[in-house]
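In this section we walk through a basic example: taking a raw amino acid sequence and producing a predicted 3D structure, encoded as discrete structure tokens. The instruction is simple. Fold the sequence below.
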Amino acid sequence: MARVLCITLNPALDLAFNLESLVLGSVNRPTSAQLEAAGKGVNVARVLAGLGHEVIVSGFLGADNDAPYQLAFAKYSLTDAFVRVPGETRINAKLAEQSGRVTDINGPGLPIEEAHLHALIARVDDLLTSATPPQAVLVAGSLPPGLTLDDFATLLNHLNASGVPLWVDTSGPALATAITLRPAAVKPNETELAEWAGEALNSAEARLNAAKRLHNSGVEHALISAGADGVLWVSAEGIWHATPPKVIASNTVCAGDTFVAGMLHGLLNQQDGQHSGQHNAEQILRFATALSAEAVRHVGVGDPHAVDFDSLQQHTRIRRLDDTITEGATL
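The resulting token sequence is shown next.
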């Protein structure tokens, strides 16, 4: 298996409540509650570690309340390379209703100063120049206060210059900034893709055309998630669409992170020469889509060891949307 570096610049302790329905202005009594050390990069790291990869996590953590993270890193066998900054890591509240609707209340995050960014770049440099550098780097999540788009571009350029494939999962201006730097992969959802494209994507054709534009802009793997409408994958391997199996969705918070981890897992295995060709591209997308569907059934990331996971894969529909035949995708 591979070594992967997952960077979360604005992590959060996720306080998740499961409710029958949310009633505004009233006392709501959840059926369950859970506090978890999270953040998009941390979520992806958990899935990758569970699939057997060696995962290093980094970014910025509040020094005053990092105990839940230390416990989580030990539990999931993640190597801690976070930079501690003064203060407390934010808390995000997730209110998940039985209908599948999720209301997020996200804290602003810790203010990041120039010295903190320099410390992170130095920490990452040590990892990238070590005797066993990572085979992929993921930067995921929002930007914390104080970290400008120029700062973000500086970090991404630094990572890109290492030659290690860079994956980015963010949104808004940060996503637009990342795309201009041509990372190996990005994964916007349909709303984030429409914002980047500058137009409403009201049809499958419009969504596909925007995904092609994203790939043609220099992003090797354009990965577009659209909930129950499935996912698009546009790359040198071809153009693929996956429709997830029908499941009862109770919490969609970690679905996108799980999908990213599943795709990265498959492409890392392909890079190692375990598989190649068109059939493997289909299997990679099938696995990642089914794993994402598994995640929406509960709080937390997807579990590839779920008793019905083989059935979820069998009920995931994969279609190829182009006629291009090329051997082997690159990470």
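Looking at the output, two observations stand out. DSSP finds ten helices and 15 strands in the chain. Confidence is low (pLDDT under 50) at residues 324-330. In the next section we compare this with other chains.
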